[in-house]
C-alpha cells in the first residue's frame, strides 16, 4: 500500500512538472542546486522524500522498490499530474527505472543520475546491519567520501557539515528498509522495454554507482543518451551542478 510521501512544490503552478527524487540517506534538501535553474525556466519543481526519509512516514520495513514506485504514482495522483519529468539520483533513479518499466505512461522524460540497475546485494545487507548497530551518525561519517571528492570536501567544509547532518537525521528504520529495496531490486532485465526519453548522467569519480553502471543502463534503454560529468562523486548534482543543470534542462525542454 502506498504512503503519502512528503514533498515541496516550487515554481509556476501551471509549469510542466519536474519531480526530483534523491539518494538513500538524503532528503529533499539535496536538490537545492537544481531548484533555481528549473523554476526560472518555467518548471514546477516537486522535491520528494522517499518513505522512511525526511518528512515522509516511516512504515515498518523492509521495503521493496515497487513500494517506492507506488508511492511515486500516488504522489502524482494526489497532485493531479498526468505526466511528469522524473529526475532521480541513486535510489531515486532506481525508482525512475521502475516507473519507466511499470508506469511509463506517467512519465514525460527520465533523467537518471549516479545510479545503477543492479548492485551486489550483500553490500546492502551488511550496511543495514552495521547501521542498526552503530546508528546514522556512523553512516554520516562514512558517506561523505562516497558522496563527494576529496577536493570538494576540502574546499566546502560547511557543505560537508550540511550533508553529514542530513544523513545523520534520517530514521534508522527508513534507511535500512530502503537498503532492502536496493538489495532486492529487479529492474535490469526490463530496461529494454522503457520507451520514455532517457538521459543517464554519471559522476566521473563516483565510487558507489560508477560510470560503467551508468553506461550499462544507457546501453540497455533504447535511444538513451549518456553523459559523464566531473569532477564529481555520488552527489554530482551538487558537486558538478554547473554541468548537470544544463543537461537536465536541455532534456526536459526537448520532451516538454
What does this structure look like?
This protein has 256 residues and is α/β, with parallel strands linked by helices. It has one domain (7-254): 3-Layer(aba) Sandwich (Rossmann fold), CATH 3.40.50. It is built from eleven helices and seven strands. The protein has helices at residues 32-40, 65-79, 91-102, 121-134, 136-147, 150-155, 157-168, 172-183, 211-220, 236-239, 241-254, and strands spanning 7-10, 17-21, 44-48, 84-89, 107-113, 198-203, 225-229. It has a seven-stranded mixed β-sheet with strand order 1-3-2-4-5-6-7, with helices on both faces. Strand 4, helix 3 (91-102) and strand 5 (107-113) form a beta-alpha-beta unit. Helix 5 crosses helix 7 (157-168). It starts with 6 loop residues before the first strand and ends with a helix.
Rg, rounded, reads 16 Å
Biggest pleated-sheet summary: 7 strands, mixed
Could you name the CATH class? Alpha Beta
Q: What name does the CATH topology carry?
A: Rossmann fold
CATH architecture: 3-Layer(aba) Sandwich
Q: Strand sequence of the main sheet, in spatial order? A: 1-3-2-4-5-6-7
> So, the CATH homologous superfamily?
Alpha/Beta hydrolase fold, catalytic domain
Mean pLDDT: 97
Approximately how much helix is present in the residues? 40-55%
Q: Could you list the spans in which at least 5 consecutive residues all have pLDDT below 50?
A: none
Please report the number of helical segments. Answer: 11
Order of helices and strands: EEHEHEHEHHHHHEHEHH
Beginning-to-end CA distance, first to last residue: 31 Å
